[in-house]
Amino acid sequence: MELIKNKVEEEVDDYDHEDDDTDEEEDVIIAQVKWRKHYSSVQKILLVGDGDFSFSLSLARAFGSARNMVATSLDSLEKIKKNYSDGIRNIMELEERGCVVLHGVDGKHMSDHFFLKTQRFDRIIYNFPHVGFHFPEENCCQIQMNKTLVKEFMKNAKALLRKENGEIHISHKEGDPYEKWNLVKKAEKIGLHLHDTVPFYKNDYPGYQNKRAHGSSADAPFQLGQANTYKFRLITHPL
């Protein structure tokens, strides 16, 4: 664990010095802002539970660099190698582009992570959170487990979010039983409000491969159907 921690600290040394840029350098960066859908090369972005890291890589390729990104997964590096045909290749390209890649990061406890707790992000992204297929999707136990996952993720993401214009993005399937997860109500209870909801289209992110991520079919895609990205911001109260 200490070796891993030292490796991460070495990788993020340059990342932490971005705030030291001069005004002139910042002007150059602003002039070269690159976008992919809702995300830009000047936002500090945290990606959670990214499976084979293909979504992170789609952003990095659009930006031309990933120095503004931290990409994480719950899986260990060994498990990623076992479960995903392109996982290691995607990670290698992300790191070559300057991304900090972290493994074994649990979205329900990530605000306690030794590195993440020192950071604040403009965008925190979790696409299609899911605990795995323990029961049928419509089973009440399965629904409750997923609701708990989303609630704990939002609590932790809130702690890592920049107060000014920071957003937590959750992409989520629509219809029954997914509407029973009650994303908006759960967000409001922990001090977040729904800023916007926009349709999620896989084709907006070239190279992204949505994965089941669990069991013997971890590398297989799941049917997206109708899906939206929910954008949450901190609830602020006037003085």
Automatic annotation (TrEMBL):
GO BP: any one term: rRNA base methylation
Residue spans crossing the bilayer: none
Protein's organism: Cannabis sativa
One Gene Ontology term of the molecular function aspect: rRNA (uridine-N3-)-methyltransferase activity
A GO cellular component annotation in the UniProt record: cytoplasm
Start and end residues of each 25S rRNA (uridine-N(3))-methyltransferase BMT5-like domain: 46-212
Protein name (database record): 25S rRNA (uridine-N(3))-methyltransferase BMT5-like domain-containing protein
Domain of life of the organism encoding this protein: Eukaryota
